[in-house]
Amino acid sequence: MDKKEIGSLLKTKREALGLTPADMGRKIRCDRTTVERWERGITAIPSTKMSTIARAYEIDVQELAELCGFSADEFPHVGSDDSDVCATVEDLEFLITVARGLQKPMSIRVIRELLKCRKQK
C-alpha cells in the first residue's frame, strides 16, 4: 500500500470516529497539519509513533505497521535466546512504543527478539 492509500484509510477511520484533524492531533500529541499530511499521503507515518497512531485511529498496530511497509520481522515471534538483555535508552524507548500498541504484556523472550532484530539493522 502506498502513502496515499494509507492516508485515505486513516482519514476514513478518523471521520468514522467523528474526529477532526485537530482532534486527532490532540489525541496523538501532534499538530493538525501533521495529521493532514499523513492523511493526504504527503508524509510517511514515523515508526516511533506507530503504536500511538494505531491506538488513536483504532487500528491494530501490527496491521498498520505492515501497511506502512514494515516487515513481519520487525514484530518477531518469541525466540529461544536466553542470553542477558542489554539495552540502550533508545532501545527502551523503542520497546515502550511497541508495548503501548500491544493488548498484553511482552515476555522477556519477545523483548530479547525485538532488541536482536533492532541491533541487526
What does this protein look like?
The protein has 121 residues and is mainly alpha-helical. It contains 7 helices and no strands. The protein starts with a helix and ends with a helix. Mean pLDDT is 78; it is low at 75-85.
Low-pLDDT windows of residues = 75-85
Strand content: under 5%
Helix content: 55-70%
Written as H for each helix and E for each strand, in order along the chain, the element string is HHHHHHH
C-alpha Rg (nearest Å): 15 Å
Shape: elongated
How many distinct helices? Answer: 7
Largest sheet: none
Number of strands: 0
Mean pLDDT: 78
Q: What's the N-to-C terminus distance? A: 23 Å
Structural class designation: mainly alpha
Features:
121 residues, mainly alpha
In short:
With about 120 residues, the protein is mainly alpha-helical. Helix content is about 60%, strand content about 0%. It has helices at about 5-15, 20-30, 30-40, 50-55, 60-65, 90-100, 110-120.
Any chance you could write out the topology, listing elements then pairs?
Layout: H1 3-16, H2 21-28, H3 32-39, H4 50-57, H5 61-67, H6 89-100, H7 108-120
